[in-house]
Design a protein that fits this description.
eight-stranded mixed sheet; 4 helices; alpha+beta; M1 Pyruvate Kinase, Domain 3
Length: 273
């Protein structure tokens, strides 16, 4: 197998950027989800679950680690500050602020209880400290799972952007192969060692429209009907380092990896209500 895509999302729920190589740190991809847009009225970090328009803005990373945000209006916001907050507030129609994930209280956000109904109950959860990730440091998706979904619902657009992974692995086998890695295997990419923890439970995010990608609630319904609503693998990091597109991806049994000195990550997934 090969690593075919690396994506980082500097700002939570905005479009990210594909990069040819990146450093994986113990808590995730360098520069990934280190920033978020906070609703100053509620104190919650906005996500496209509750504010789907976020998916039409794009964030890239400055050399200093701050984001450059390009709004669908064409306005560009360079880093945090009063001008950026004013532009974001004007775009979203309410007072918001671009905030870092480090050295702040654990962030709260909301999702809908029914992923296909935006009028259903809003459920709050807290994110891990240090990054605005939903649960684990990385989300890994395989092309095998994309093909499995497309086979079940061929009229849907199974563009990988719907699922917002950090790493996309080209898998030759059929089916939801990353599920079989969770809790049983280590994934080796060069010197990097990843520890898939559990399949990712999907939500309304996969149904949302994005640039050149229409709304489709049947994508979620297909996953719910045929695969328990899961897609991709939440993944921890045992050994960090650099990875590049084209790198070989090797999956080994966790027992064999532990013999080689790889530590299992026993931290629980922190997605809670």
């Amino acid at each position: 197998m090969r690593l075919v895509e690396i994506v980082r999302y500097p700002v939570k729920s905005l479009q990210g950027e594909r990069v040819p190589s990146a450093e994986i740190e113990r808590d995730g991809l360098r520069g990934d989800r280190r920033w978020g847009i906070r609703d100053e009225t509620t104190g919650k970090i906005l996500t496209a679950r509750r504010a789907p328009e976020l998916l039409f803005a794009t964030a890239t990373l400055n050399v200093d680690g701050t984001p450059i945000v390009t709004l669908p209006t064409g306005v560009t916001c360079d880093g945090p500050g009063a001008d950026t907050d004013a532009a974001l507030s004007a775009w979203l129609g309410k007072p918001v602020r671009l905030v870092p994930a480090v050295n702040v209280p654990i962030a709260r956000a909301e999702f809908f209880a029914d992923a296909t109904d935006d009028t259903s109950e809003a459920v709050e959860w807290t994110m891990p400290a240090g990054r605005f990730v939903d649960a684990q440091p990385l989300l890994v998706v395989t092309t095998s799972s994309l093909r499995a979904g497309a086979a079940l619902y061929p009229d849907g657009d199974w563009n990988v952007r719907r699922f917002r992974p950090n790493l996309v692995v080209d898998g030759a086998d059929d089916g939801w192969i990353e599920d079989t890695w969770c809790g049983q295997s280590t994934v080796r990419i060069g010197d990097v060692r990843l520890l898939p923890q559990e399949p990712c439970m999907r939500c309304t995010m996969v149904t949302r429209p994005q640039p050149d990608l229409g709304e489709d609630r049947d994508v979620f319904r297909t996953l719910a009907r045929h695969h328990g609503g899961r897609f991709g693998a939440w993944t921890g990091v045992s050994v960090g380092g650099m990875v590049s597109v084209g790198d070989e991806v090797v999956v080994e049994s966790l027992i064999a990896a532990q013999r080689d000195g790889v530590e299992a990550d026993s931290r629980p997934v922190e997605l809670t209500e």
